[in-house]
Amino acid sequence: MPTARPEPDAPTPDESAPDDPAQAMPTPMPTPPGRKPRRAAPPKQPLTQEAIVETAIRVLDAEGLEAVTMRRVAQELGTGPASLYAHVSGKEELRELMLDRVAAEIRLPVPDPARWQEQLKELAREIRRVYTSHRDIAVVAMGRVPTGPHLLDVAEAQLALMRAGGVPKKIAGIAVDTLGMFLDADAVEDTLYLAKVPPGEDPWAHFQEYFGQIREYFAALPRDRYPVLADMVEELTAEGNDGRFEFGLDLLVRGVASYVEDEERPG
Predict the structure, then answer these.
(1) Contact 166/265 with Cβ under 8 angstroms?
(2) What is the pLDDT of residues 186-197, one digit of tens each?
């Protein structure tokens, strides 16, 4: 006659699996004499497109655009370059995203038809301020049609100012591109000048010395070959970079305003 199998003894509380997983971890070994204690690695932040772009801008601000590579950004984030491609297709897209993120810093005006020309100049100065505060980021803008949301916000603001002032659509459409080329070129030239300043030297003092040498060179040119240029040395070299920027900006805005028909002029 078959006998019933004995039931296995239920585990005692000491034999049961621990409720706290930490209790199952082995006790860490102490650091042997003469060795440095191992530091726990900080927890990694989740990799996002925003984190990639912000890191790339930090590298840009510290070392310039050429230093911004997928490998370098990945190194700064403590990961491999391959992991970046899940969020950014490559260096060109990364540069476009950087430029658009920088454009988010530009303060945009509310159009006032009575002040549209001055507001257009104020916006241009603001764009220049933001671009030149980020090394040579303006290089990215050259030869590229803006498609990012923040860059489009800037274009929308420029167009809105011109249209509020009565500038015809066709002229405003061309002028917004012309203004962009002027601002990009000015910002790039600024960064090129700054890049030539030796480390630790005052940029203003360096440029004053350089333009002094240029004045001497122009003054020594043969007058029989360059009579007009030699006669205008002071006029050619006296104005600083800010003054030249303001002159070019005024020239452009006046030119745009000249297309406003009398019946379309505000007021």
Answers:
(1) yes
(2) 999 988 888 888
